[in-house]
Recover the amino acids of this structure.
């Protein structure tokens, strides 16, 4: 018996060649468009770098001016640090401007003018500082009032704006080109995918037709081979081979001429893979039992050349119509691929487990990174925030400087708010957002927010209308978090409303017993598409809005999570760009709590008692500012920058009334220090750190700290804690 095969082999080969050519063409096209896109992106990066360099250089000049003002105001050399730092790097930035004129860069004439204005400004600043040193504040102030420095700075800002605008035009053109290239590349990719799918379908059809033809030929074989597709051996009732197909020839190593007439046990020699014991031949077992049988697992075939092959098989009897057994058929296949697949599956399972563990480790690393990022961002804000607050409350500050000081203080507060937003988002995602609900007066919170942003409203000449018409205006909520929500909404209204616009704040009650707060502005408005994404994290509108208004796009996402956690809702509406926006917050109102006792009144400041304070902080600016302010309150302040130095103070039996310690220190942590101190002392201790997550606060308390203050420091809170400790010590 012979198996007849189709002689045609050109079809599959031709199909493969055509599909391969289409794939190669697709790869070449994708590569060419990808290379063009990469080139355009590099140009985009270079043009952005030019803009960033101009803005950074101008920022350094501003730092010079900031240092000059601080020194003129105070006469303290320490305030010249920004000036000195900027002086050391300004020349490098000016020299690097020459490199930005190469090719299609900055015009050399503009660069020369920019450098000339900068040098003139540096000269003017230096002269003012010299006058302050040599002749005092009045001489320096007279020099500043000539207006020369302001004019130079205005000219420098104007020139920078002109150069940045010119580069922005080129940047926008490059962005358009990049977008177009990306679109073209995507189109090519989609087209090639469609073409490949068409050719694959065509190839599938051709191959299917080939398989059907082969199957029709196979149907001409014996009935026992009708449903067989692997290695096949047919025997008579004496287990003598009468037929062996080509697959069985390949698997056993015996040709049909050699195998036919031999005992199946000789040709199909099988043993247990593990024990190496002989396994009963399935043909013999079928003839003995008269039933279908299969091999046990871990069976290998000993081929003619004595090599081994793992197999899977089944045997069945061949019966006449009357049921008489006329022989047996054995079907078997190479089990190597299956074993490899099982091994690969096991390996994939192990890799998946490793990936899961890696993901968990990455999540822990992310949390550690956010905590460290918070600390590193908050720490340098502390001396700035405390200093600006001190200046702002100083009645001797010249009124001409007060707007600048207020502006700087607002921006520091904004930076701290952005850090808090990042941490709040992390708390929300991890389900660790802590709320402390109580009965709160919504009207008081609204009045507080509008007063907090009064300077911005006045600066932009906005018409603010506040109508608190809700008779029931008490809610059960976390006052601090609710104030955060109102601040985000009102701050957005002032931020996105142009000069001379209007903001209307209104409260009312609805029929369901809810109190609603609406904030309507005449600002830039929103598109329908942007409103659909408004309450999602990191959504800030288009690139132009991001460049113009900045921000992280977290405030409204956090506000929505907070309001929903408090059982309320928040929504936004707009008729389109330029038509203003309307934000609505709805909360269930509650009854005013009954007051059986006299409501608490604001207590007077606690009397101050001089204390011996050990301040442990490795950030030099923070140490200088806090030590100076604490000494101004008549406290005796000792400082240490490491855990080792702090322990030396205690080892030398220095007695202290209060320990104030940072958490992140060069040779350990403040918690390490606190644990060692607590072994021998019950000294009151305050943790002062940029680590502000709930786990960080709990860890500080567990280590032995009495209180936890997060950077940037609110000096009033620290002063209150110190006064309480002083009173406790003297009572």
């Amino acid at each position: 018996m012979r198996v007849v095969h189709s002689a045609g082999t050109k079809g599959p080969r031709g199909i493969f060649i055509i599909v391969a050519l289409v794939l190669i063409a697709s790869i070449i096209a994708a590569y060419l468009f990808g290379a063009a896109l990469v080139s355009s992106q590099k140009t985009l990066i270079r043009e952005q770098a030019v803009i960033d360099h101009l803005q950074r250089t101008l920022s350094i000049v501003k730092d010079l001016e900031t240092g000059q003002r601080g020194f003129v105001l105070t006469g303290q050399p320490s305030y010249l640090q920004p000036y000195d730092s900027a002086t050391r790097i300004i020349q490098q930035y000016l020299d690097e401007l020459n490199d930005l004129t190469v090719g299609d860069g900055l015009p050399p004439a503009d660069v020369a003018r920019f450098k000339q204005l900068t040098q003139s400004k540096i000269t003017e600043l230096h002269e003012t500082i010299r006058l302050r040193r040599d002749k005092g504040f009045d001489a320096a102030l007279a020099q500043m009032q000539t207006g020369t420095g302001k004019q130079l700075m205005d000219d420098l800002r104007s020139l920078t704006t002109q150069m940045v605008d010119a580069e922005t035009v080129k940047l926008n053109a490059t962005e358009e080109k990049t977008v177009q290239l990306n679109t073209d590349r995507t189109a090519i990719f989609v087209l090639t995918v469609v073409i490949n799918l068409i050719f694959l379908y065509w190839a599938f059809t051709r191959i299917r037709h080939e398989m059907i033809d082969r199957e029709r030929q196979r149907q001409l074989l014996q009935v026992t081979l009708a449903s067989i597709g692997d290695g096949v051996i047919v025997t008579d009732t004496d287990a003598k081979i009468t037929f062996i197909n080509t697959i069985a020839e390949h698997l056993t190593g015996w040709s049909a001429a050699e195998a036919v007439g031999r005992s199946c046990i000789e040709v199909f020699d099988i043993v247990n893979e593990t024990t190496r014991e002989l396994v009963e031949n399935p043909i013999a077992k079928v003839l003995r039992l008269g039933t279908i049988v299969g091999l046990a697992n871990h069976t290998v075939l000993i081929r003619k050349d004595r090599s081994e092959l793992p197999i899977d098989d089944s045997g069945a009897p061949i019966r006449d119509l009357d049921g008489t057994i006329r022989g047996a058929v054995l079907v078997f296949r190479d089990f190597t691929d299956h074993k490899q697949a099982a091994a690969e599956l096991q390996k994939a399972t192990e890799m998946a487990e490793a990936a899961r563990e890696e993901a968990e480790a990455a999540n822990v690393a992310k949390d550690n990174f956010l905590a460290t990022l918070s600390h590193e961002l908050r720490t340098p804000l502390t001396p700035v925030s405390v200093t600006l607050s001190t200046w702002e409350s100083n009645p001797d500050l010249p009124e001409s400087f007060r707007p600048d000081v207020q502006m700087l203080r607002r921006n520091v507060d904004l930076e701290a708010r952005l850090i808090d937003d990042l941490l709040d988002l992390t708390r929300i995602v991890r389900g660790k957002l802590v709320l402390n609900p109580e009965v709160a007066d919504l009207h008081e919170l609204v009045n507080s927010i509008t007063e907090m942003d009064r300077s911005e409203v006045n600066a932009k000449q906005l018409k603010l209308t506040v109508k608190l018409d809700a008779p029931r205006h008490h809610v059960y909520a976390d006052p601090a978090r609710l104030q955060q929500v109102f601040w985000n909404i009102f701050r957005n209204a002032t931020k996105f409303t142009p000069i001379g616009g209007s903001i209307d704040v209104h409260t009312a009650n609805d029929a369901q017993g809810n109190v609603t707060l609406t904030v309507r502005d005449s600002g830039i408005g929103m598109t329908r598409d942007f409103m659909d994404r408004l309450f999602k994290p990191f959504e800030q509108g288009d690139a132009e809005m991001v460049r113009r208004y900045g921000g992280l796009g977290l405030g409204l996402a956090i506000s929505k999570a907070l309001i929903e956690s408090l059982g309320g809702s928040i929504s936004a509406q707009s008729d389109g760009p330029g038509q203003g926006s309307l934000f609505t917050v709805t909360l269930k109102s509650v009854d005013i709590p009954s007051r059986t006792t006299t409501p608490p009144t604001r207590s007077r400041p606690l009397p101050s008692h001089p204390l011996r304070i050990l301040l442990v902080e490795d950030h030099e600016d923070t140490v200088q500012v806090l030590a100076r302010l604490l000494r101004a309150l008549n406290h005796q302040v000792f400082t240490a920058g490491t855990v080792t130095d702090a322990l030396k103070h205690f080892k030398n039996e220095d007695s202290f009334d209060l320990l104030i310690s940072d958490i992140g220190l060069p040779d350990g942590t403040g918690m390490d220090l606190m644990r060692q101190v607590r072994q021998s002392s019950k000294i009151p201790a305050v943790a002062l750190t940029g680590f502000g997550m709930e786990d960080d606060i709990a860890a500080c308390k567990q280590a032995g700290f009495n209180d936890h203050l997060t950077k940037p420091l609110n000096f009033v809170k620290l002063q209150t804690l110190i006064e309480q400790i002083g009173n406790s010590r003297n009572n």
